[in-house]
Design brief:
It contains 3 helices and 5 strands, in the order βββαβαβα. The protein has 102 residues and is of the alpha+beta class.
């Protein structure tokens, strides 16, 4: 039986360690694209709704950064339900998307 991939991305720097997730449109053309970053748990419902609206209208990428894996998972599930044309991508892929020439 195929096992579900467990996405865990740990980031650290400046004496801080946390977790991150990146969402990109399924048809992301690469290159420089609109991106919204959300810091959890600092961002509340209004900020999450604003990020969803921005990503939807601009076909932008979303970066979620949080202190815990659970915070990222909670926000990620909400974002994926609200953004059906987006998918989660690995940080390495997000970096490659931003460097690819359009």
């Amino acid at each position: 039986m195929k096992q579900k991939t467990q996405w865990t991305t740990s980031v650290s720097g400046f004496g801080w360690q946390g977790h991150a997730a990146v969402l990109a449109p399924r048809d992301d053309p690469g290159g420089c694209q609109p991106t919204v970053a959300i810091m959890l748990p600092e961002a509340g419902g209004d900020e999450l709704r604003g990020a969803i609206a921005y990503a939807r209208t601009q076909q932008g990428r979303v970066l979620l950064v949080a202190d815990t894996r659970q915070q990222v998972r909670h926000a990620l599930s909400r974002m994926l339900m609200a953004l059906p044309d987006h998918r989660r991508v690995a940080l390495e892929r997000a970096h490659m998307l931003s460097r690819r020439l359009s």
